[in-house]
């Protein structure tokens, strides 16, 4: 029988359908107009590696222009997990012509919950690094309609003197933002799809189950919705009953 360590390694090495994740589609569930795309941990790790390769190519292509990315700002909360994964690839370099990237954070609030964007983003935690005069990669987990990206780009440029902004995100919902700024990304998803990143599995469950319940879903329907989305049983065992009974 395989050891737990061997089982974990086997899962990490499981085949990934790279073509699917270029244009992934979420699943429909009862009592909801949104579709849900559950991104497993190992898939986001894979996607981050592909993005890092694109960043590296950008750095190579811009050796002569002196427009290489030297700093990266992770937009919290969404940009933290992909940002930490990218840090593993980009915070040092084996090529003397490629600068290591210095990572920092900026707290921005954009959503109240799934499908509930705020009227406009706001800065809730200050920028942690100096980006004055720098080419900056802005890391987030998703570009929706480009509002957050534009807000952060303007903030870093106008308030902190960044010379150029490169948006870096695993997934896009709209390609319109690409005409406004440089973008490095991997996949694109439909606008009606809520992407559940590894950092927000519990948050989405806790916020969406009461919504389904209030719209008529039984406990069993909520459980089936989560299973269809892709939730593992251990998270249902821990959180589903409490979320359903939440006032």
How are the SSEs placed, and which strands pair?
Elements: H1 4-12, H2 18-22, E1 27-28, E2 35-38, H3 41-61, E3 71-76, H4 80-90, E4 102-113, E5 116-125, E6 135-139, E7 142-143, H5 147-160, E8 164-172, E9 182-188, E10 193-196, H6 201-214, H7 219-229, H8 233-244
Parallel strand pairs: 2-10, 3-4, 3-6, 6-8, 7-8, 8-9
Antiparallel strand pairs: 1-2, 4-5
Helix pairs in contact: 3-4, 6-8, 7-8
Please, could you describe this protein's structure?
Helices cover 39% and strands 25% of the residues. It is of the alpha/beta class. It has 2 domains: 26-38 and 194-244, no CATH class; 41-193, Rossmann fold (3-Layer(aba) Sandwich). It is globular, with a radius of gyration of 19 Å. Residues 5-9 have low confidence and may be disordered.
The average pLDDT value, as a whole number, equals 91
The CATH architecture of the largest domain can be given as 3-Layer(aba) Sandwich
Class inferred from helices and paired strands? alpha/beta
Query: What separation lies between the terminal Cα atoms?
Result: 45 Å
Query: Approximately how much helix is present in the residues?
Result: 25-40%
Beta-strand content estimate: 15-25%
Provide the descriptors you would attach to this structure in a database record.
10 strands, 7-stranded mixed sheet, alpha/beta, 247 residues, 39% helix, 3-stranded mixed sheet, 2 domains, Rossmann fold, single chain, globular
Please sum up the structure shown.
With 247 residues, this protein is an alpha/beta fold. Helix content is 39%, strand content 25%.
